[in-house]
UniProtKB/TrEMBL annotation:
Membrane spanning residue stretches: 448-466
SMART domains per UniProt: FN3 (SM00060)
Source taxon at top rank: Eukaryota
Record PANTHER family: FIBRONECTIN TYPE III DOMAIN-CONTAINING PROTEIN, FIBRONECTIN TYPE-III DOMAIN-CONTAINING PROTEIN
InterPro entries in UniProt: FN3_dom, FN3_sf, FNDC5_C, Ig-like_fold
Sequence segments annotated as region (Disordered): 412-438
Alphabetical keyword list: Membrane, Transmembrane, Transmembrane helix
Originating organism: Pieris brassicae
Keyword Transmembrane: yes
Name recorded for this polypeptide: Fibronectin type-III domain-containing protein
Domain named Fibronectin type-III: residues: 325-413
Keyword Lyase on entry: no
Gene3D superfamilies: Immunoglobulins
Length: 524
């Protein structure tokens, strides 16, 4: 354990003097006297007001002395720049200039950097990016309107509030906000020309890639780096203008954006998408469907849905939804213990189907292999009045595509009686089904272990109580022996002997003398 050391006091600044220390002590004393008088309210208002004026005067004198000392120290620093260039001015400037060091992208090896970028931004060779539409120049009467004053004010407000790092041009958003009022006409004409020509400058599409190291990850893994792309602030401002006009056009003239679109929309955030996903998942769970349907996901309504799905569908695994997955699964009851399961699929060359079914509360399952050209199977020998879960999986192309689980319940067996049969007699040769064996509750080993553990704890607590505090006094009263602890009073032995001999006039010989008569007896 380290030794205790007294705390170090605060260092005095270079402009501190003894005069300032005396003024500070007098100011603190006046402040305490004024606050004490104001808190107790014993003195009159005149006394409190006098203490307040004294405190203000001393505080004003302290501030003036500090300002004069700072000014003198500043002049001394300026005069000493030539004499001592590596002194206090150099050290003060060096504290403010914190070296950021070499960027992480430049410190990594080129081969490792290429591998990290390829893993973070995968681009399969068979994926063709969507082609951009040709630029259409509108007629003179249908030209895009000029950037309005309201849009310029919105741009200026956004630039003032941004605290992000600059893009490749190195111009910070706050610097652009300071310069924008003086260059408003030029910037407005530039943005208007871009809108009317339908072109977005290529320089504003180019970003600077920055990698941020994640804590707790191996430095040799691509997952240990978070990619961030920085764009120019001027290009972001033009993007805001285009996005705001698109949103106004879609909301006014339509078709409006889907309700499932949350990205790049005002008034919506990731929390709204999570709440929508939670409510949708809960509703699907109550319906008995427990599967992720990518076609109904909010991502499918975005502008890049086709590109994203083209990446994900070739990488589909068992349990995913995609082409060839059995759909429209229908369960038809043939009798209480036999059902017919049918399905349909879009795949043409299916090698085989695996139909898996089991009771919902059972730990086992039954798998039936069905030919690839079939679209139905009959499940027999099921238990009556039991809930089952069935899944159909298609095997083709070396992958298995499983459908969502379907839950159904078998029917109860029909109950016949002589009245329902129209009075027909049942032949004696008919075999009566055996009576069902009584079912007993199943006790698990874990439950037995918990009960035994609780009993052991109770027994240990009771044993500890008796060993710690002894017997219960309510049952066996405990009376200590006070004979060895009685107070010995001088003369009590002689008094007892006199009482026993009958010489005490105040008491008889047969009764014990418990009262001391100081007039008749003297201490031995």
């Amino acid at each position: 354990m380290p030794k205790w050391r007294p705390p170090k006091g605060r260092r005095a600044v270079y402009w501190w003097t003894s005069e300032i220390g005396n003024l500070r002590g007098a100011c603190s004393e006046a402040r305490r006297a004024y606050y004490r008088s104001q808190r107790r309210r014993r003195d009159g208002p005149d006394v409190t007001e006098g203490l307040r004026s004294i405190y203000n005067d001393r505080k004003r004198a302290l501030r003036g002395a500090i300002c004069e000392a700072k000014e003198r120290a500043h002049q001394e620093v300026l005069r000493g720049l030539d004499d001592d260039p590596w002194g206090r001015p150099y050290r003060s400037a060096r504290k403010r200039l914190k070296g950021a060091g070499m960027p992480l992208v430049e410190s990594l090896e080129p081969a490792f950097l290429d591998r990290v970028v390829a893993d973070l931004f995968p681009l399969p060779p068979d994926i063709v990016p969507p082609c951009m539409a040709a630029t259409v120049v509108e007629a003179a009467g249908e030209m895009a309107p000029e950037v309005s004053d309201i849009e310029m004010e919105a741009i200026l407000t956004r630039l003032k509030a941004r605290k992000k790092a600059p893009g490749p041009d190195g111009v910070h958003a706050r610097v652009l906000a300071v310069v924008l009022p003086n260059m408003e006409v030029s910037v407005r004409e530039l943005y208007t020309a871009c809108l009317r020509s339908g072109r977005f400058p290529v320089a504003w599409k180019t970003g600077r890639l920055c990698l941020v190291r994640k804590e707790g990850r191996s430095a040799d893994s691509s997952a240990a780096y978070r990619p961030i792309v920085l764009l120019d602030e001027a290009g972001k401002a033009l993007e805001w203008v285009v996005a705001s006009r698109l949103c106004r056009h879609l909301s006014a003239e339509g078709p409006d954006l889907s309700e499932a679109q949350y990205g790049f929309r005002a008034g919506r955030s990731t929390l709204d998408a999570l709440w929508d996903l939670r409510s949708h998942t809960k509703a699907t769970w109550h319906e008995g469907q427990r599967v992720r349907d990518m076609r109904r996901a909010p991502l499918a309504h975005s502008a890049t849905a086709a590109l994203v799905l083209s990446f994900l569908l070739p990488l589909a695994y068992a349990g995913s939804m995609g082409p060839g997955v059995p759909e429209n699964i229908t369960v038809t009851f043939l009798n209480p213990t036999t059902v017919r399961v049918s399905w349909s699929t879009t795949a043409e060359l299916v090698e085989k189907y695996d139909v898996t079914y089991k009771p919902s509360d059972a730990s086992y399952r039954v798998v039936l292999e069905v030919a690839g050209n079939s679209d139905a199977v009959i499940l027999s020998g099921l238990e009556a009045d039991t809930q089952y879960q069935v899944t159909v999986a298609a095997l083709w192309g070396g992958h298995k595509y499983r459908s969502r689980p379907i839950v159904f319940r078998t029917l109860e067996p029909p109950r016949t009686s002589p009245q329902q049969d129209g009075g027909l007699e049942i032949p004696r040769s008919s075999v009566t089904p055996p009576e069902p064996s009584p079912t007993f509750p199943t006790i698990r080993g874990v439950e037995i272990g918990l009960v035994v553990l609780v009993l052991i704890i109770w027994i240990g607590a009771i044993t500890l109580f008796f060993n710690r505090w002894g017997k219960i006094r309510m049952l066996l009263p405990y009376q200590p022996d006070y004979k060895q602890e009685q107070l010995k009073v001088p003369g009590s032995s002689a008094l007892a002997a006199a009482t026993a001999a009958g010489t005490c006039g105040a008491h008889s010989a047969t009764s014990a003398c418990s009262v001391f008569h100081f007039k008749c007896h003297k201490y031995a």
